# Entry
Amino acid sequence: MSDFIPGDILEPLLDVADVEVWDGGGHVPRASLLEKLATCGGWLSMLSDTIDAELLDAAPGLEVISQMSVGVDNIDVAACLDHGVVVGHTPDVLTETTADTAFTLMAAAVRRLPEAEALVRAGAWGPWDPWHFLSGDLHGSTIGIVGMGRIGQAIARRAQGFDMPVLFTSRTRKEIPDAVRVDIDELLPRSDIVVVAAPLNDETRGMIGRSELGLMRETAYLVNIARGPLVDTAALVEALAAGTIGGAALDVTDPEPLPPDHPLLDFPNCLVVPHIGSATLPARRAMARLAVTNLFAFLSGEPMPAWLPGSARQRLGD
Ligand code: DGY
# Structure
């Protein structure tokens, strides 16, 4: 295990494996990880682990990696296939929580909550002023969802409760109730809020760059709840500095963690939180449970409930 997993969730694994949990605090240093994996058959990994050919070479007995996240951009899945390693992950169980986070960020950014809260804390709360801290409305705003997977669809369902027209992009044709599929070049200028909800891969890296930001409305907000490198950070800093977009709300950034002196933190209209999209206790317990269930299934010779078909063939599942 790369990290702590609650004892009641871990328990079933103890019947089928000798389990070692990293207890060195923080992330497992690379050297320790390579040393430990040299003798492991299975591994419960985190999105902060870089899983590449070097690591797989150092783990000749490794048959299964079960990652406690839905995103697997830290994993070289093709290398896992080459090394005969099956990869599990944790889709579905965090979908609704992450969609809640998207809405929380949208509402906070559009209604300028961070700025308003900072003013109160700074002791600058003056008499009520009808023209102070004005913002746009969340309800009725057009939302453009970039990437209509599970989380994008959960965001679209919530948008309907806020009377928000929904536009979306998707690689594949999808029928989503009351939502219109458009090209990104059409979505960007028509949206009041652009939410990035696509997986990170070679095709999507940097998909929101200078020209895409240039297509957004001057009043529109960019919200990223997927992965930092989907957005070109330098281009976003430029757009915020030039005032060509209304603001941003980011659960994920590139780099991550964001250094305290990073220019993104200079903009009061750029809200940044530290990759907490699925960080509720119920969601994290469900993710841990699914990661353990995936490992348990593999080690028991059963099909894993959530594995990546692009990784090695499952012992029984494929
Ligand atoms: C995931 O599961 O990929 C999320 O980013 C974790 O919050």
